[in-house]
Amino acid sequence: xxxxxxxxxxxxxxxxxxxxxxxxxxxxxxxxxxxxxxxxxxxxxxxxxxxxxxxxxxxxxxxxxxxxxxxxxxxxxxxxxxxxxxxxxxxxxxxxxxxxxxxxxxxxxxxxxxxxxxxxxxxxxxxxxxxxxxxxxxxxx
Length: 141
Description:
By secondary structure, this protein is α/β, with parallel strands linked by helices. It is built from 6 helices and 4 strands; from the N terminus they run H-E-H-E-H-H-E-H-E-H.
């Protein structure tokens, strides 16, 4: 992804739209700032499904997050929800970067399938078998 440290919307959304060529058959998986990018993308674009890992909806009073451009306007929850056939979220109560209340709020607004996984922190490990399981279930594999 371009602009990996600030994860600015003005860089990430054009990249996702153009380089990845998303359409209504696409499944997007986002982690942390990638979740906010996907949610903003869904305000205009349709996809098949979305997996959000450690999503938030506020800038957490963090200057770096404020610079990311995702939080400068209200979220269009209804449009986000309607532009994906399904949305699944994963969060951990032990996440020290994004409080679990943020993930719960997003899940409530999006009426997503929501899983809280204990002792997973900010999901910085190299494997997340729950994501593969969701994809297999949703794609009937």
